[in-house]
Every structure is written in C-alpha cells, then in structure tokens.
Amino acid sequence: MRYRRKITAVxxxxxxxxxxxxCGGNGTQDSxxxxxxxxxxxxxxxxxxxxxxxxxxxxxVNSSWCFLRYGVGECLFRFDENVEVENALCDSYxxxxxxxxxxxxxxxxxxxxxxxxxxxVVKESLERLYRTEADGTGSSTPSQYVSFSSIExxxxxxxxxxxxxxxxxxxxxxxxxxxYGIVDTSVIDSQVIGTGPYQVASLEENSAIELVxxxxxxxxxxxxxxxxxxxxxxxxxxxxxxxxxxxxLVENITTPSxxxxxxxxxxxxxxxxxxxxxxxxxxxFHGVLxxxxxxxxxxxxxxxxxxxxxxxxxxYTPGCSVLPSSLSYGYEQLTDSYSYxxxxxxxxxxxxxxxxxxxxxxxxxxxxxxxxxxLAYSSRNLDxxxxxxxxxxxxxxxxxxxxxxxxxxxLANQSAGSFxxxxxxxxxxxxxxxxxxxxNFYSGNSGTYGYYENEEYDALYERLLASVDEQERLELIxxxxxxxxxxxxxxxxxxxxxxxxxxxxxxxGADITPMDYYWITTDIRPxx
Amino acid sequence: xxxxxxxxxxxxxxxxxxxxxxxxxxxxxxxxxxxxxDPYEAVLADAVQPPGPEHWFGTDRMxxxxxxxxxxxxxxxxxxxLALVCIIMTAGTLLGILAGWFGGILDAVIMRISDxxxxxxxxxxxxxxxxxxxxxxxxxxxxxxxxxxxxxxxLVRSLVLKIRERDYIAAARVTGxxxxxxxxxxxxxxxxxxxxxxGATDIGSMIMEIAALSFLGFGAKAPTAEWGLMLxxxxxxxxxxxxxxxxxxxAIFITVVVFNLLGDSLRDVLDPRDEQGNGFGRxxxx
Lengths: 528, 286
Hints:
heterodimer, A: alpha+beta, D-Maltodextrin-Binding Protein, domain 2, Dipeptide-binding Protein, domain 3, B: mainly alpha, MetI-like fold, 13 helices, disordered C terminus
C-alpha cells in the first residue's frame, strides 16, 4: 500500500514536471519569435485593436481600413505625413473640368500574387465597389464621396478615365480613401489580394493575422519577411505585451497610466500626433432624442473639459465642433451655444415640460420615463466617454444605460437605427477635405448617423460640394459647423491624439501619421 | 439560553464564523448607513483620487467613492450568490431525488444530461451561456446555475440510492405510504444536512464565479457596484492606482474566506460522525 502511494506520488510529480516543462518550452519559443522568424528572416510582432475580420474594401468602412492598415492593399493615391495627397498606384493624372479625370496607372506594379496591375483591373475593382454598394452585398458606401457616370480602361495607354457624376475637385483625395483600395478582382472570390508590401498568409478571426512579405512590391525594399498581427481588444494588454517583449509595436495605448509609463521609459519610443479624429456620439433623431430641448440639455449637462482631461487622462483635446480645433476650419470663430452648465440643463428641461412627475427620479417625455440606450465600443476610450455621459445624464434625471459592443455589432445597430446614442470616432478629413464628413449630417446620407435633418444645412452642404473657391468653402464650412452646434446635432467629446509605441531596440521608424489609414508601412523596419 | 451556551461551547469555530457571516450580511443590509457617499454619485473631476480622509478607499475613474461602492457591492454579490445557491440547491435536489427514487428512463435522462454538463469545463460553458443570453446579473446567475446544478443532483441521487434500501423506507412502504409521503417525510430530511453543508461551502465559490463573469464583461453592467466589475474597471490602472483593484479584491477575498469557513464549520455541526472525531469521512482523509 505504502509503495503504491509512493509510486503514484512519483508518477504525479513526473506528469506535473513534464507539464511545466512543456508550458515553459512554449513560452520560450513564443518570446523568441519576437526577434526573428523560424527561418531566420526578420519578423515583427504587432498588436492592435481588431476593427474587422475582413480586409475586403467592400465589406464596410473598417474592413477597407484594415486592407490598408495591415499593409495588404493600396489606393491609387495616398496621404503623406502632412495630409497632402500624393500619387501611389496612379503616377500621374489630368483633368480639365474636374469632371473627367484621366489617371495613368503606374507601370510594373504587381499584386502580391504576381498578377499585374492593369487599368482593366483598376476599373473592375472600382466597378465592383459600386456594384456591391448598389446591390447591398457590401456595406461600404463609396458614392458618399463620388459617383462615376463612366469608368473606362485603356490598357494600351495605361490609363483609366473616370467621368464623375458632378464636378469633383478633390478626386485624388477621395480615391486615397480606403474604400477605393484596389483589389485583384480575378481572385477576389477566394481571397483579398492587394499591391501592399505584405500579404495575408493566414488569419484567425479576432486572434491573429500572419503576414508575409510581398515579393513583388513595387515601392522599395520590404523590411520584414513576416509579421504577426495580434488582435488585442484591451489597451492594457497591449501595453503589457509590449513591456514583456511579446510584441514589438502597438497602436493606440488608450489607458493614460500605461501611456505615461511608456513615455517615461527610454526603452520605448512613443509617437503621438495631433488628432484629426473626432470623438463624438450620434443622436438618433427618430427616437426620443428628436426632442430639441432634451438634446440641448444633454449638451449642457456634459462636461467635456473634465471628461477629456481627467476621465480619459488627456487622450483627447476637448472641443465643441465636429472639426478639430487643430485644423484651419475657423474653430475660433464658432460659438459654443450649449457649453457645460448643469443649472441651465435642468432649466431647459423644466421649461420644456420634461419633468419627473411621478417622483421616481427620472424625467418623463410624453408620459414615458426617459431611458436612453447608449451604445459604445471600447476603442479609443469611447466606452469611458459613454459611461461619463451616462453618469452626467443620470444626475439631471435622464436614465441612460450604456452597452459596450464590438465594433461590427455597434455599426450594424447604428445602420439599423437601434440606438438612442452611439459613440463614434472618425477621421473628419478622410479625403483630405471635411466635406465628406460633413455629409454625414446631410439628410440624404444621415440615415446611418441618426437621421439628422435640416434644410438650411442641406442647402449649405450642396453649395459646398459645388464650390471650388477656397474662401467660399471655408465660410460655408464655418457656417455649417455653427449650425450643427446650434442644432445640438451630435455630442462632441473631443479630438483624439493617435499614438504608436514601439520597443526602441527592436523597431525603427514607427511613427504614426495624422491620417491613420497606414499602420504597417515599409517605413517600419528593424532597429539597426 | 443554556442550550445556546452549550452549543457555543461545543461549536466555537462555527459560532465565530457564523457571527462573521452575519457581519458580512449586515454590511450588505445596512449599506446605506455604512456608506459615506452615494455609490453612484460621480464627480468626474475627482477621478482616481488616492485613499484619504474624504474617500477612505479613494475614488474610481468616474470619481465615485470606492468605499461606498465596495460596501454596496456586498449587496449585489451576496444577493446574486445566495439566489444562485438556492436555485442550484433546489433544482439539483429535486432532480437528484427524482432520478434516485424513480430510476429507469428518468434517471438515465437526468444523469446523462448531468454527465454532458460536467464533461465540459463549467466556466467556459457558463461564459457561452452568458454570452448567448447577454450581459446582465440575472443572466450571469442563470448561466452559472445551468452548469452548477449537476453537482447537487449527483450527490442527492447517490444519497437517495443508499437511503432507499434502508429498513425504515421498506417499513414505510409496507405500511402503505405513498411515494410523495416517503420522499417528503423520510428522504428529504435525510439528504438535507449534506445538501446544506455543500450549499454553504458553495456560496464562496459562487461569489467568485459571479465576480469572474462580471470581470469578463458577462455579468453586471456599468455602473452597477459589483466587485468583479470593479476589478475589471480598475485593471487598466493597476500600476497607477492599485487601490482600484485592491479594495474590491479584498472584499471578495474576505467574503469568500468567511463563507468557506462557515461551510466547513457547518459540516462539523451537522455531521454527527465528525462530532466524535471518528467519522468515516474524516478517517478516510487522514
């Protein structure tokens, strides 16, 4: 009996030891892969938030961004670090009337599968984008920025001729937007192939993406043989992965304490850029928030200054307009009609008859308690904003429940109008020009942004689209911004400051650009 | 009074842990008296303040008083875990008695479902159930109940199988007692002490499981004062503001320890074999 116990104990100890050794072995192998891949080539471990599992530009906004961000695809044009448009797959263009554009497609460019990039493929790629928008198989809405009455390809001349439905002065900027990323249409039914420096080797949904070097890349040397993109939802996890050496580069650490630690440590390089991203929440005008007084009161009840500087630890710069104060769109000329003033919020509600008649602590509108359904996703502190807003609203007797969802689900709910408030974080000059973003509030487009409608705004927007005079455009843009503030059209939280953090001894050139369509680029390379 | 004194003298450990448990419950019941602030009142400008005279445990990232939230958290955690233990105890006991007493197909069906449940990691299954139902405290309780009743069913079934062969059950049958009478009068009272002991020791682990679900975002939703959720909210500030995790963590730790020790000492009280120190179960463990 005693021997049997001893033997069992020894066996158990052996099993435990073997198990521990196996676990330890895996850990060593994993952490070792940070420096180089198994075949000895250069390897980068990158951690980022997962915005979409798809990389097909037609799927939705985020999938098209992923197509560019992971270095898989490219557009005909791109933005440089000064938000200036430069040529990419198109190496020259001509237009006489800003309606007909002749784009010359760069010669010698190949997709990562070796197929040649021809004007015909460009034409087919753009046509597919518009076709899927029309038949509803894709959620991307390219006609929001530009529609074409014809797209012609001339392979012999190497050109694509685009005839816009209306005069479009900023077409290169529009075509730099990720929706217009060029895919190899001959294989698109089975895989998404672009012309970027890397191609997808494997993808594990919501977990990791393996990228390998595109051997056919046209624009210089590709620094890494392979890249593992870890899809990490949590900001602290990203920071910890960077500190432990599991990853070499992370995007957007949104926890102030983690970011401060990394900035203070010379082992890490933190690149930050002044934001062109707006953090805001859209109101659903088809619900209870169609009530003007209620929206105005919400504006007055929310202390954006404190939320930006304290709640999210300075990750955002506070502001009242949809266009950031850092851009030259006349922010200083705007008047904040409903700045933070709790007493005024209560007064507006009382005067509008939105009061708590049954004494349950919640005000009623049309005999019903106000309980707002606030949707948020955890990217870039948006969930914290939502919670802070909800707390502020509870203080004035407006019930508000925050539901944090993953981005795709939140976006689906936004499109379906199943929300009262929904957080958003978007680049407001997506095409190098704010007219596209301002179009979110145009009654023809606002369906997915809460159904805001104002005839005066629509008229100004139409004038903006038609105008090519810079001064006139600026005046229109200022007027439109003021109108949105006066209408309490969307709850502006602030302007986000994007960041990249990397291990200084492993990675060089990891600088974030103001237009963060570009994460993995050939500028990011192993440290010398 | 004399009886009570005797009981306390005989069971000092149980008495101490019972009083401690009463203390924890009192904290939950008298939370409004004990709390220094409204747990949901936020002063955004006072976010992440360290512990001090105004805020004993500091403030969280929304500027709410952490001490008051920890105190109110006892209400949420205790209510949910007690409800959960009651549900699984009742459901498990009922199904176990049915399976053990009636046998046959009923036994096979209940036990095979139970086998299916325990052949899968409980927490993972609970996460799946909570994920399908959506995040809320009620759904978290349902999710854990779905995966936890099997323990009680199996335990009760084995007890019933043992008891049903006893002479007094045979005697009851001979005298013409109906099944329901036997189950109610003879079986249930005999399985109850064991079930109560198991239930008492389970409260602690149920608090942990509910906190775990909330921590993972499948239980309580913000701004509820719930310990697991508070741990999750403080996680991002682990290095900069450790008190955001320390105090809710301590609350969970203390409550779980108190309930676990109560469960252990309750076993000593209810199990007469252990009272004499020569019980079968005790011997086997030695």
